[in-house]
Amino acid sequence: MASLLSLPIANRSATRTALSLTHTARRTSSPPLQHLRSFGVSPRRSLSHFDTYLFVEKLEKNGMTRESAEGVMSVLAEVIEESIKGMEASLVSKAEQEKQRYTEKVDFARLKSELQLHEKNDLTLMKAENDRLMADVEKLKQRLREEVTRTQAGVRLDLNLEKGRIRDESSQQELKIKEVDTRIESEIAGLRTQIEQAKFSILQYLVGVATGSGALLLAYMRMMR
């Protein structure tokens, strides 16, 4: 750059042109990062595609010396090289983008698989727990049925035993009542027999008294004559 300041005034217009091109290349070579990341970067191309000889000739035609033109060319080449390096550093290559995209897909697939596995495990556990609860409920129902059946059988047995006991007591009471009735009838028959005997005795006594009284009356009547 110091060699450029020592150029004659006649050659400074060409130098300004070259520097403006350099400034433009530098300004356009560093766009914002958010715009650059949306594009891929092809492999680094060599500067051999740039016709340096033709550029030097154009500078010489504009009034620059060969040495000055080569110096400007050297500076411009360095600027372009730095710009390309800056762009390559700020950009993300297609391979890296594909790698990042593939990594994200793999991570997403792994996360999805893990979520599905967890969901499947949760569903399996819930189903197993539900089956266990249903089995416990069925066991409780069966136990309740057995308890109810056992209780009903016990109640029926107690009722049958109570009915049998009441039937036996009723039979015993009936037998006792029959015995009492038989005894009462026997006593009544005995009383009737005694009454008949008493009546017969009284009748005999009355007949005897009447007969004796009649005999006495006849004897008295005979004596009074």
Number of strands: 0
Q: Stretches where pLDDT falls below 50 for ≥5 residues?
A: 1-12, 22-48
Q: What fraction strand? A: under 5%
- Report the span from N to C terminus: 220 Å
SSE succession: HHHHHH
Average the pLDDT over all residues and give the rounded result.
77
| DSSP helix fraction | over 70%
> Structural class given helices, strands, pairing?
mainly alpha
Give me a quick take on this structure:
The protein is mainly alpha-helical and 225 residues long. The chain contains six helices and no strands.
List keywords for this structure.
225 residues, mainly alpha, 85% helix, 0% strand, rod-shaped, disordered N terminus, transmembrane helix, membrane, transmembrane, mitochondrion
Structure in words:
This protein has 225 residues and is mainly α. The chain has a domain at 2-92. Helix content is 85%, strand content 0%. It is built from 6 helices and no strands. The chain has helices at residues 2-5, 12-28, 33-36, 52-61, 66-90, 94-224. α4 (52-61) crosses α5. The longest helix has 131 residues, at 94-224. It is found in: Membrane; Mitochondrion. Keywords: Coiled coil, Membrane, Mitochondrion, Transit peptide, Transmembrane, Transmembrane helix.
List the helices and strands and how they pair.
Blueprint: H1 2-5, H2 12-28, H3 33-36, H4 52-61, H5 66-90, H6 94-224
